[in-house]
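Hey, quick one: can you model this chain's 3D structure?
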Amino acid sequence: MAAAGSPLDEPFLVPGKDREQRGGADDVANIEAQLLLHHDTGASFWRSCLNLSNIISGVGLLSVPYALAQGGWLSLVLFAVVGAVCYYTGELIARCMRAGGGGGVSAVRSYPDIGQLAFGQPGRKTIGAIMYAELYLVAVSFLILEGDNLDKLLPGTAVGLPGGYVLRGKQLFTLVAAVVILPTTWLRDLSVLAYVSAVGLVASVALTASLVWAGVAEHGFHAKDANVFSLAGLPTSLSLYFVCFSGHGVFPTVYTSMRDNNGFTKVLLFSSVLCSLNYALTAVLGYMIYGDDVKSLVTLNLPTGKVYTRIAILTTLITPLAKYALVIQPITTGMEEKLSSSSRGSLARAAISTGVVVSTVVAACTVPFFGYLMSFIGSSLNVTVAVLFPCLSYLMIGRVRRAEAAGIVAILVFGVCVAVLGTYTSLHQIVSTF
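Sure thing. Here's the predicted structure for all 434 residues.
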């Protein structure tokens, strides 16, 4: 338990200077709280299940057939292992919350709070930096996703610019998506966007249904020529599987938002099983239809002009458009707080947000390889946030029995191996494309 008067005793939504002292990484939890929290009574069990499922089920759904193609059918065993590990580390986060007084008037209400409880101020700063990097790369992946899918939806579109330059294809639509998103990044209150982003669950169901439709109407389902196991593709496969189960940075917010957070373990189990089944079904359907030709975004395999293709792409595009501003909000807020108070205001905020958006556009156009980028995020950042940090924090905070400690150490070794091999493989793939 934190000592009275420590920084951990400060309230969750902290205005002004207090928030600056705690660090901008807490804004991740503050923003997600706009979606998750019922300030009067707290979220019910089923609303918490919906919220957590929405967090777990993300853009990883689009790349999971590609992950299966990389590792082969036997990699589904590792998919199950990754899901089980991420469920367990999610439970470790809940235990850390309880150890820090995570219910009621809580001293530990965000992921950086756990870092401070376990490792002091260096822990808070480290996990904050990792979360900033993860959020920035996720924002880049959103723009790549928008550009790729809009190019699939509207092929051959081009716009002439002064000087005879023609902007076409993915670069054109990446820029168009950024222009549409830009005004939303100037807003300070993003609660409306937070609620819009909940359609991600609908998009997940629509994508799976579209694959069933495509298999029945067009290609059929063929498993005989599929790859059984590929050792060379395993690092990429594992990294992308970790992307599927990322979201641990928001788990503390779901925990504190619950009316009865003693039921968090059941909520986590229900949401993990539900999302795992949807991920596995999508992976199997996509791989059985397209085999080793499946692309890093399975929507790019769907035939142009078909109704189910348009449904899949349109629903897929909504979530990144709605969530981009939520994702970069902590980054822009942190940069804004580095300026003097006299420099703050709507104009300064707009300038900072615009700069961040422009930088992500440049990055998206420079490294337009969704699968490789998601693999890098999964191996280097998601593994750290979803596996390494929860395990290390619990070993520092909790009273761990010897048998469980041995299991946690084994998970840590597994996570480090995935992080090292996956990061090397994804970086090598990105560099080799230039």
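One thing worth noting: The first strand starts at residue 158 and ends at 160.
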